[in-house]
Amino acid sequence: MSRERCRLYLITPPTFELAAFSQTLGDALAGGDVACVQLRLKDKPDAEILRIGAALMPIVHAADAAFILNDRPDLAAKLGADGVHVGQSDASYAEARALMGRDRIVGVTAHNSRDLAYDAAAAGADYVAFGAFYPTGTKEPLHWTEPEILEIWQETMETPCVAIGGISVENAEPLVRAGADFIAVSAGVWSHPEGPRAAVAAFNALFDRVHDESGDKG
Questions:
Q1: What pLDDT was estimated at residue 123?
Q2: CA-wise closest residue to 184 among 5, 33, 9, 65
Q3: How far apart are the C-alpha atoms of 88 and 101, rounded to whole Å?
Q4: How far is CA 3 from CA 45, 85, 89, 97, 201, in A?
């Protein structure tokens, strides 16, 4: 049985100016299929996160993508976001689920630990995120992992997995082939030499090619 085609999980830059980025985001989303956009704003006041989220969420929804907030299930619930992503040092999965309800997305960081991932999946997480796979300028990774973890996960679990950490169009293919359901990208899209829209198109072309080739084999 062939796997579902991999999809792009887009993460906002660490800092941006809202008016300009709103245009950039809309243009990037026009480049092709994007499963979701995660708003990741560290060290911003709650009111600022809510203001920016309220401005960007309609742009994301217009592209049929889900809008996910990083770290803060309380603000995600207040904003009416489609989901929240929590790290191991953020709110627990149980807290996030209680705030978000059963019908919204709750994703959990598992770093390089299958045990953390199994625990999250057993609790009911909608996806688990493994990484970092490559060096990244977004934040200093505390945990490194190998593509093999994606292969093992696909063989044993139904819960979708996300690959994250320093991923670009140039280095994503091994992770797609290993079994990532979603490829999470920040700088690999926003800093792409041909622009974010071209980056989204290039990722989609890669996902199509790998999916077609794996379909031919099986």
A1: 97
A2: 9
A3: 20
A4: 41, 24, 32, 28, 21
Written as six digits, the tokens of 142 are 């505390």
Q: Which DSSP letter does residue 194 get?
A: T
For the chain, 218 residues long, the average pLDDT of each consecutive 10-residue run is 87 97 98 98 95 98 98 98 95 96 97 97 98 81 90 97 97 98 98 98 98 76
Which pair of tokens denotes residue 88?
């191991």
pLDDT at position 139 is: 64
> Cα 22–169–217 angle (5° rounding)?
125
What residue has token string 């390089």? Answer: 112
* DSSP track, 123-146: HT-SEEEE---S--SSS--S----
* Identity of the residue numbered 152: I
Residue 137's alpha-carbon distances to 11, 165, 166, 207, in angstroms, are 13, 9, 7, 24
Distance CA 180, CA 161 (A): 6
